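Let us work through a complete example step by step.
Step 1: write down the sequence.
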Amino acid sequence: MLRVLTLNLQHGLPGAGAGDGAAASGSLAGADIRSPALARAVLVQLAAQIAELDPDVVALQEVDLGQSRSGRLDQAGALAELLGWHHHRFAAAWAGPVAGLRRRPLRSALARPADDVFGPARALLGRSPAGFGNALLSRHPISAWRVMRLGRGPASVVRRGDNPISPRSYRVFTASARNLLVAELRPGEGRLPGIDSLQLGVTHLATRGDVAAGQLAAAWGALAALPGAHLLAGDFNLPADKVAALGIGRLLGEGATFPAARPTRRIDHFLTDPWPVDAAGVPLSVVRADGGGLAPRLHTVGGGVRTFVASDHAGTWVDLAPLG
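Step 2: predict the structure and record it as tokens.
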């Protein structure tokens, strides 16, 4: 069995799971995470909650790197360190500060100044690379990492004033860039018998439904073209019926994930390889096109939803096992 957790981190901002604000309870509700110490305290508590759940892989969205709003931490690296895991990767959807000039990273890892066009200038000012994107953390070895850009979609115009003919009554919001981060996971002996590799992707899709649907189709197409079994996790910003209507994979997991305080809808999902079924809904054997035997397929043997110290989303997980 392999347990995979996905969580929209919301840059580590304390949310519904941070407590009631009472100092006596050790609550982090309302903590100003611009302070590096408080930002790390949130991640320490989050890591402890994740460890209680004992996943094998954590897929994260809305992850900060070097942002002033979150204590200038490397959030993915810090969480991996706290969990004691050696395999992790951050992939910036864009580089630069949140409040400033955002740009496409030269290399999504933003591991050194040269990965950002303005990185050398930031280094002269004593600033490390900054960005925002997705991350994967794994307790098991990763044999390859891949990143794919998914575009950003059109800008939105929102009317804020009373005068419909005044330009001052409107604001233009540019869409955020999106990407797909994929890890080729080697599950290890006994985790997923018969499955040598799992292509595990994480993404965070646009808030506009038609754009999100196109990005999801592109992400799944790229992931499914890789050899092995496949799992796509993340914040799709789409309800389950809209994902299912695309017909591009098979949804796993149950339970509402948003908003975190009182979840009413599930917009955080897992998508895996489809399988054909007979008239009774029983899965049929699936033979690879090259004649090499049964193609690997996954199903769930457990899962759930829980609120964590950070985020306006609840996290959700699935326990995976091979079919047959």
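Step 3: interpret the result. The longest helix spans residues 36-53.
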